[in-house]
Amino acid sequence: MPKENKHSRGRRAEKKEKRKRDDNEDEAPVSKRQKSEDPADEVQILGTDDAPMQNGGEEGGATERPFYGMLEDEEQEYFRRADEMLDLNDFPSPEDRSLFLANVYREAEGKELKIACSQSCSRLMERLILLSTVEQKKKLFENFAGNFPHLIQHRFASHCCETLFIQSAPIVTEELTADSKKKDVEGEETEAPASMESLFLQTLDELEGQMTFLLTDRFASHTLRVLLVILSGRPLEKSSTRSLLQSKRKEKITVTGHDSSPTELSLNKRSVPSSFQFAVDKIISDTIATMDTSFIRILATHPTGNPTLQLLLELELTNPNSKKGANAEQKTIISALLPDDITVEGSESATFVNGILYDAIGSRLLETICTFAPGKLFKQIYRTVFKDRIAAVSRNEISSYVAMRVLNRISKEDLEEAVTAINPQILGLVQRNRTVIIKTLLERCQARGVDTKSLTASIAAAYDSKPETLVLKMASIDDISLLLPHQPSFTTDGSDPAPPSKEPPKPTPSQLHGSLLAQTMLSIPGPPATLIQDSLLALPHETLLALAMYTTTSHIIQSALSPTASNPIPFRRKLINSLLFPPSRAAGEGPTASPDSQEPILALALSTTGSHVLDSLLTSTTAPTLNSTSAPLFILTERVASSLLSHEYELRESWTGRIVVRNWSLDLFKRRRGDWVRKVKSSGAEAVASLPTTALPSATSEPQVEKDDEDTKTGEGDREKQVQKVSAPGEGKKKKKKNRDNKFGKGKGEAQADPTKSAIQLAREKFAAQKKIKDAVKSHKGTGANAGVILVDN
Questions:
Q1: Residues 721 and 781 in one domain
Q2: Residues 495/489, Cβ–Cβ less than 8 Å
Q3: I need a surface site. Which of 165, 221, 471, 784 has the fewest CB within 10 A?
Q4: Averaged pLDDT for residues 67-83
Q5: Which spans does this entry mark as compositional bias, Polar residues (predicted)?
Q6: Virtual torsion, Cα 285, 289, 294, 297, nearest 10 deg
Q7: CA 452 to CA 441: how far, in whole Å?
Q8: 269 with 185: CB under 8 angstroms?
Q9: Looking at the 3D structure of the chain, how many domains does it have?
Q10: Left (φ > 0), alpha (ψ -120 to 50) or beta: where does 307 sit?
Q11: 3-state secondary structure at position 70
């Protein structure tokens, strides 16, 4: 009879006691996979000074980890159902959910460690932490106390610890601003419960002496980085931090209907107690004291230890109280990595930097050094390693990311030299779709005030210099017909549009990078923006519409519609007319023409991607200029709103259409046109106010630009001028009032009406002044000349 599989999850009741006595049975498979998948873990024993192997063998070793027992079959079934209910979150009220959580905690009392280490129930523990109160989280800290060194090395329990730490981090800041003790009625101090700060410090005390071993542990290294981020007060939800805390493959545990959006405390830098900063300094000093130089350099290329070493180095270099320079008296990470003068040819520091420059893992550590190193040290690294090789470094697939970090810190003179050196490499970079370095170079030229004319000419030459194909090549779109079937095919007989023949292609990384390059060029006034704008205006209407409804290229259209100084009003008007109101459709010509001239607007409104273009168009056409409150393109806003209103039924039948109806306030546009004008103009002004002042278009340059605009010759410019006279709310009334004041003798030398007075007050003063004049005329029944004198005097 074959033996029963002891590693299976379905176990018989009579075998449970025997398996509970076998301490290594549950952990042995995981430890074997660790050794086979990550053989570099053995390095940690060889490169330390005080033999952390003892710590790992006594407390952290896989063979000595305690076994917390296993859940009974009935318990596993209960917790499995509880996990399903929490995942669905289908409770009548929050109170019912709180009662359910309390019951689950009651059933889990004394079994918290078993649940955290269970493959099937560890997700329940994470969901419990997400929904727990402050007191319940503190209770979990107390239940896990004494076992954190083992839990953070466990395959499943380590995720529970990370969730507990991340969810408890904002509580530390909240308690820091609140009173730690409360006084009763008699004024005596009552004993306060344990603070979250003390619970974190107790956890660090348990991990003391094992940091070196945990650096290269497969699971504990992630938890250690979470602790370091929390102790330093760094944001928890930013993309740069998330990449340090977890991998892309990490399963994200959520609760349906639970608000998991980032809070202000998790998005911004948090206030942390001084004890946390002291703990970070102690962790860095203790860790560096237990490692020799060779082991630190091995960590630089270690796939598990490198991210943690990056974080430790960043915390060391950004700490204002630490000695950050190389050759410092106190042993630091940067002094261990760069022990001697890097400017000396053949030095140990120069050899190390050149060795990790082209390494896929080590180059990330070099990025951290180039980003956070002190100015003096960075200048030495740049002049020795990068200055004469910036073109070759930028051309390589791995070292180009280090080059981008270097370009962000060099001076204007060095940047001009770098542009001259990299300029001949633009063609090769474009051919290999490495446009990220070109994008960074343009951004730094804009920030430093470096001329971009030659760089833009090289980019245009690399994309064949044809305006009608430049944007398509930049976005890596070889065949525009692949995007066109996604658009609805309109018919001339009024029947329903034909369904699309196939789905649009999925965006590729090269398309994303090309789109980001085009957006960057549109934000830089001068030759870069002009190059992309001319290409967009050279595209036919069908191509523009297809680009506006494709995910990656839609962002190019949105950036072109942004009301910035690089996108002047004439260009935005031409782009909107070409996208929404092509001449062939307006005149009903061409094989694809339709009696309905608003079909492009409807197609955008019904598209998930195209609806964002309509939102950008609303901001673009209602945005005022820098020195004026008028919106020169507001006539297009009313035209698009009228077109959308004519398709109100189709819009309300679509999910994206209802969003467009709400964003454009079509209900208000249909009922109270004046209120709608004020609302959309105020919204446009608020959107423009959020932009930098230097990015806004100037009103003084508008007349000269408008003279060169071709739309003025067709009469559209005159129509917009007429609309401008009445577009701004209250402008017409002010002009009429000014004319009446001049009629009744109010000259330029007299005081104007107080703008702070209400309309009723101004009306009463006006009525009183007119009545006074009439009474004076009646009382002096003289000649017309005498009356005229009286009018002038009054």
A1: no
A2: no
A3: 784
A4: 87
A5: 691-703
A6: -10
A7: 9
A8: no
A9: 2
A10: alpha
A11: coil
Structure tokens at 121: 């129930």
Residue 266 has which token pair?
């998790």
Whether residue 736 sits in one domain with residue 766: no
- pLDDT tens-digit readout, 350-365: 999 999 999 999 999 9
H-type alpha helices, 178-238: 196-207, 211-215, 220-232
Distance of alpha carbon 288 from the chain centroid: 34
Whether residue 738 sits in one domain with residue 764: no
Q: Is residue 210 part of a domain?
A: no
Range of the domain at 773: 757-794
Q: Residue 470: pLDDT above 90? A: yes
pLDDT band at residue 441, thresholds of 50, 70 and 90?
very high
pLDDT higher than 90, residue 457: yes
Strand partners, 489: 498
For residues 376 and 50, the model is more confident at 376
Q: What is the per-residue pLDDT for 245? A: 65
Q: Helix (H, G, I), strand (E, B), or coil: what is residue 464?
A: coil
Cα 405 from Cα 386, distance rounded (Å) = 11
**Taking Cα atoms as reference points, which of 157, 83, 160 lies closest to residue 126?**
160
Q: Where do we find the tokens 């071709």?
A: 710
For residues 722 and 776, membership in a common domain is answered with no
Q: How far is CA 347 from CA 214, 327, 384, in A?
A: 32, 13, 11
Closest by CA to 218, choosing from 27, 37, 28, 61, is: 37
Query: Angle at the Cα of 211 (from 205 to 47), degrees rounded to 5?
Result: 145
Percentage of the residues of the chain whose pLDDT score is greater than 70:
69
* Range 426-439 average pLDDT: 93
Structural element, H or E, at residue 457: helix 453-462
Q: Are 530 and 560 in contact (CB under 8 A)?
A: no
pTM: 0.73
Among candidate residues 146, 159, 121, the one with its CA nearest the CA of residue 246: 159
